[in-house]
Write a structure and sequence with these properties.
- This protein has 193 residues and is of the alpha/beta class.
- Helix content is 39%, strand content 16%.
- The chain contains 7 helices and 7 strands; from the N terminus they run βαβαβαβαβαβαβα.
- It has helices at 17-32, 45-56, 67-71, 88-96, 109-123, 141-152, 173-178, and strands at residues 4-8, 36-39, 61-66, 81-85, 101-104, 131-134, 165-167.
- A 7-stranded parallel β-sheet has the order 4-3-2-1-5-6-7, sandwiched between helices.
- It is globular.
- The termini are far apart.
């Protein structure tokens, strides 16, 4: 059963409206299914849209944010819980400690770093939960092509394609999580190519 998920998302305020809407739709789906959200704790961009909608829907949302972002006044002040950490490394570790799934909305380099670390940990069998990319407007198509190139050029095994699931619409998120292939610590046995 999916009780709690981690959502990676952009903090940019200048993104096209379709991405902000995808964040809101993701929050609506998660709240409607009683799923708690862990996210980066920000008040802007997709992070802010996600948090605001979770709050409006009566869902539970926990932010994890480094102190320097609090000092820069980037934190959302209306969350159910805001956990302050000292470093970005602590933040990423806290994102993954007790999550039932990882969800990547469109985002910039921070989102990409968090997503790729999650995929790497899953490849090593250190993270076993589903990873779902919400591919709004084909946002993740270039990354998916790059990952496919890694398979074709033998940097990843064909089995590694099972580490992530892709959906174009937040409305299909719960099904994407449920349909994700099983993964366990035995993945270390085929981590190398």
């Amino acid at each position: 059963m999916i009780e709690q998920v981690t959502v990676f998302a952009a903090s940019s305020r200048r993104v096209p409206a379709r991405y902000l809407q995808a964040a809101e739709d993701t929050a609506r789906v998660l709240a409607a299914n009683g799923v708690k959200v862990i996210y980066g704790g920000g008040s802007l961009g997709l992070m802010g849209s996600l948090a605001n909608r979770m709050i409006r829907e009566g869902g539970y949302i926990r932010g994890i944010i480094p102190r320097f972002m609090i000092d820069a006044e980037w934190a959302h002040r209306g969350l159910n819980e805001l956990v302050v950490v000292e470093t970005m490394h602590e933040r990423k570790r806290a994102f993954l400690e007790a999550t039932d799934a990882v969800i990547a909305l469109p985002g910039g380099t921070g989102t990409l770093e968090e997503l790729m670390e999650s995929i790497t940990l899953k490849r090593l069998g250190m993270l076993t939960c589903p990873i779902v990319l919400i591919n709004t407007g084909g946002f993740y198509d270039p990354l998916l092509s790059f990952l496919e190139k890694m398979v074709e050029e033998h940097f990843l095994r064909p089995e590694h394609r099972r580490m992530w699931t892709v959906t174009d619409r937040p409305e299909n998120l719960m099904e994407a999580i449920r349909s994700s292939d099983g993964w366990d610590s035995s993945a270390i046995g085929f981590a190398l190519v």
